[in-house]
Write a structure and sequence with these properties.
Distance between the termini: 42 Å
Largest sheet: 3 strands, mixed
Radius of gyration: 24 Å
Strand content: 5-15%
Strand order of the largest sheet: 3-4-5
Number of strands: 5
Shape: flat
Length: 228
């Protein structure tokens, strides 16, 4: 805020997920270390920025998503195919009827279909679907995450809904006790259950028991992780 750009920084921060920021931070640290090896400072900085543009995080690791990979889509279509076939994806991208019906009323599935990211996805995942119609979608926001509710994020979520359904839908978010499990709560519960199952599996493993009885070995429970 001392530089007068606090509002701009806040708005930009909402466009990135925590995974994005962490990756870019690591690239910046490594790039700063390598600057003395560059022919000139500008070239070194440009290389750091190119790395940030070339890599995007993905669950389970990082993957390359450079712009040269874009032509792969046109290449998949053979010249002998009828001209009418490529038109189908356009209707799906536009968010018209073909993509909407399967997820109407299923809030977790709708969140995935909207392809939300960052803070907007966090807002959606901490809500439950209280009401939906052709004209309105009403969400209940878990009071424990009331700080996620902001005009900017609500606007982005509304725009995503409009694009998905192909029409203007009024979005209303109310901060109140949720009537059912939110997607975020469900994911947290499933994570706990997988962790408990992993710990029980280790505790009941015959080899582990033999090591404990024979050598006095001890399992470091804080290192146990589910395979999936």
């Amino acid at each position: 805020d001392s530089y007068g750009d606090g509002e701009a920084i806040t708005e930009l921060a909402q466009l990135f997920s925590p995974e994005d920021i962490q990756l870019y931070y690591q690239i910046a640290l490594i790039g700063r270390r390598d600057l003395p090896l560059a022919p000139d400072p500008r070239g070194g900085l440009e290389m750091v920025l190119l790395r940030m543009l070339a890599f995007r995080p993905e669950q389970g690791g990082a993957r390359v998503t450079t712009t040269p990979s874009a032509p792969a889509k046109p290449a998949a279509a053979r010249p002998t195919q009828p001209a009418a076939r490529p038109a189908a994806p356009k209707a799906v991208v536009a968010g018209t009827a073909p993509s909407a019906p399967p997820v109407v009323g299923d809030w977790p599935a709708l969140i995935d279909a909207l392809r939300l990211r960052g803070m907007v996805r966090q807002l959606a995942e901490n809500c439950t679907l209280a009401e939906h119609s052709d004209q309105q979608v009403r969400l209940q926001l878990d009071p424990a995450h009331a700080q996620l509710h902001s005009p900017a994020l609500e606007k982005k979520l509304a725009e995503a809904l409009n694009a998905h359904f192909g029409r203007d839908v009024k979005l209303k978010i109310q901060t109140e006790a949720v009537s059912e499990e939110t997607p975020a709560q469900r994911q947290a519960r499933l994570t706990r259950e997988r962790q408990q199952a992993a710990e029980q599996s280790i505790a009941g493993d015959d080899t582990i028991r033999a090591l404990e009885e024979t050598f006095g070995a001890q399992v470091q429970t804080d290192t146990v992780r589910p395979l999936d």
